[in-house]
């Protein structure tokens, strides 16, 4: 269970990260030990950024230490930062010391190093702050929490591993939470070997003996599996549970070469359009249609489809550029897939469901309803947005604003609705100042949208706030270093 504050012990940090991912929490965790403070920023459960008060963790020192800038460049840029108050990254970019893409890559490596250092902490305390994130200071990391944990615990010594594990006679089973089972975590071979032995009947000592990789490697692998929440302490008792545990373990450790039929579409090739289509289809699909199986499908066929779809649509598997605003869609799809499987994999529940389905009594819950909205509200929001766009293009900005406002009320999580309300307000006399709030909010919801940066920057330029506009444009370059529009906007400000 997630605790918003506490002491740091052996497995505190990896479990804390997993709890935040599972709970889709947004906020900042502040870790402190003696005089050292580190902050890790999360948005909807994903690690976005990290910062540290240690001098050697600062960007300039990191770039100097890794040989990306010279001592002369470091000294010159530091003097400029002190004199002008500008951010170091912007100064190095202006100096020509680093390109936009190099800067983005190096900041991500710096952030990653700060996060990984935390996994070695065994003392100190933490507190979770759910206040608004300082988005102007954040460059999204876009990395799997599972992979961060695997890399972070890789260097742990024997004493830490042994001390953190349950007693040797404790029985270990695969996780029962599907959000942990199908997460994106690239297990190493030793970890796959130990995971393949989990059956809910063997204890830790028996797992070590059966692994054939030595006690230390087996225990370290088990530590990783427990840290990832892929495994948990407990016994598997019923026949159905044992069968499921066997199947999910085989599916997790199998390679492409050993799978009988690798799906044509993988999580890596799943497009934005496919996700949107899958999400929009949920409102009219029954459980069989959700899983893509016929009503006479066997348990084996249902299970196979469940495994495939869970890995395709797991929110933790999609960190690609342009997917940030689809996290809620993926959560809805993933939850619906699991609910459909839970019903159809149980003979009793399936029989009851089939009776209701045949009688027309069973209506599937639309994904929007899961998030507190009705499908009809979503449709009405789209209609209002279309009307708003029509009025906007016709120059009726007052009518457009009214339509966009209603669309937002019905579907507040849609960044496009928020952005276009900002646009309409910017065109209405004496209301232009209100557009800043909507442009900033749209950027917070979809930080990959370059046009949102442009409009917010234009707002600041029109208001005479050139420094703010320049800061917005520089943030945009960190997301899309090749944007000609942003480059032109910066050039215009500097003229």
Protein model, in words:
- By secondary structure, the chain is of the alpha+beta class.
- It is 57% helix and 7% strand.
- It has 4 domains: 5-148, no CATH class; 156-250, no CATH class; 272-370, DnaJ domain (Helix Hairpins, Orthogonal Bundle); 375-494, Serine Threonine Protein Phosphatase 5, Tetratricopeptide repeat.
- The protein is built from 25 helices and 7 strands.
Q: Gist?
A:
This protein has helices spanning 12-22, 59-65, 71-84, 88-95, 100-118, 145-152, 158-164, 178-181, 189-196, 204-211, 215-227, 239-253, 272-281, 287-291, 299-313, 327-344, 347-359, 367-370, 375-393, 397-410, 415-426, 435-445, 450-462, 466-479, 484-494, and strands at 5-7, 27-33, 36-43, 46-52, 125-129, 172-174, 231-233.
Tell me the layout of helices and strands.
Elements: E1 5-7, H1 12-22, E2 27-33, E3 36-43, E4 46-52, H2 59-65, H3 71-84, H4 88-95, H5 100-118, E5 125-129, H6 145-152, H7 158-164, E6 172-174, H8 178-181, H9 189-196, H10 204-211, H11 215-227, E7 231-233, H12 239-253, H13 272-281, H14 287-291, H15 299-313, H16 327-344, H17 347-359, H18 367-370, H19 375-393, H20 397-410, H21 415-426, H22 435-445, H23 450-462, H24 466-479, H25 484-494
Antiparallel strand pairs: 1-5, 2-3, 2-5, 3-4, 6-7
